[in-house]
Amino acid sequence: MQQTLAAMGQPASIAAIVRHSLICNTWSHWRLSTLLAAPASEFDRWVSVRGLEHLTQAHAAGRGVILLHSHSIYNALPMALLERQGITDMMLVGGKRRLLEVGLTSFADRLQLGGTLDRSSASADSGPGAGQSTRFARQLLDAQRILRQGGVFHVAADGYQTPRHIVAPFHGRQRSFGIGFAEMALNTGAAAIPVFVSLQPGGQVTIDFRPPLVAGAGARSAQVESLVRQYVGQFAAVWAADLGNIRWRHLAKYLRLPAWDPALEGIEV
Q1: For residue 9, how many other CB atoms are within 10 A of its CB?
Q2: Less CB within 10 Å around the terminal CB: N or C of the chain?
């Protein structure tokens, strides 16, 4: 944490941020599992929600929603919140392990799980990559079907392992952000809604749903880049303001990123 703060040029309040980070990262599975199993009155006592209407309005109108999570410590809470709201037509990128380890057993059994959307080693012709390519295509079809039916697709928009991405500056470092969610939003007409989860020092958890990202006019490539950069701007601001809620391994990943090179601005890989 101290190295991250130094790299970002934020030496103020180091002790308070480190203390918050220790609280958030310690016993996180126990804390999350307890909240997920809590009765409604207790859940509502400890979890405050902002902006849920951005999602419920789209869902009520039959519009698909791509919920853009980040790798914060308590990022499973929005899924549980939606289930409590009666929204169960959802698909998650990832396997059951994360849900099972925090006590979402019954939720995991009902949730359609897509596996990792990664085709970096896929081959359409032969070899082990052929199966991976088939799985990737099936996952995309499943996700688009759910979105066109007005369901919710959960994805970590800050993931590092993405087949296609845009290179962007991130607090002085060079960082890639996947463009898959933006392409899927344009393909299906789904609303791309960022959500950020934060454990406060006093124990209260805040779930913050943001307004849908707006693609705007112009060529498709420009719309894709606009959607991704809108997310990057929001994510970067939340990340810097709430470092205590970032998993330690993701702080370590940030420190391993190369320094930002302005010549890479906007490059799509």
Answers
A1: 9
A2: C
Measured distance CA(129)–CA(21) in Å, rounded: 39
Q: How many CB atoms are closer than 10 A to CB 87?
A: 17
Radius of gyration of the chain (CA): 19
Q: Per residue in 137-196, pLDDT tens?
A: 677 788 888 899 999 998 889 987 667 888 899 999 999 999 989 999 999 999 999 999
Q: Position of tokens 């799509």?
A: 268
Are the C-beta atoms of residues 228 and 177 closer than 8 Å to each other? yes
Residue with tokens 């409590």: 84
Rounded mean pLDDT of 43-66?
95
Q: Does domain 2-264 have CATH number 3.40.50?
A: no
User: Rounded to an integer, what distance in angstroms lies between the CA atom of residue 110 and that of residue 116?
Assistant: 18
CA 162 to chain centre: 13
CA distance 242 to 201: 11
Task: Tally Cβ neighbours within 10 Å of residue 154.
Answer: 23
Contacts of 230 (CB under 8 A, 6+ apart): 213, 214
Q: Three-state SS across the chain? A: CHHHHHHHCCCCCHHHHHHHHHHHHCCHHHHHHHHHHCCHHHHHHHEEEECHHHHHHHHHCCCCEEEEECCECCCCHHHHHHHHCCCCCEEECECCHHHHHCCCHHHHHHCEECECCCCCCCCCCCCHHHHHHHHHHHHHHHHHHHHHCCCEEEEECCCCCCCCEEEEEECCEEEEEECHHHHHHHHHCCEEEEEEEEECCCCCEEEEECCCCCCCCCCHHHHHHHHHHHHHHHHHHHHHHCHHHECHHHHHHHHHCCECCHHHCCCEC
The proportion of the chain whose per-residue pLDDT surpasses 70, expressed as a percent, equals 79
Contact 156, 177 (CB under 8 A): no
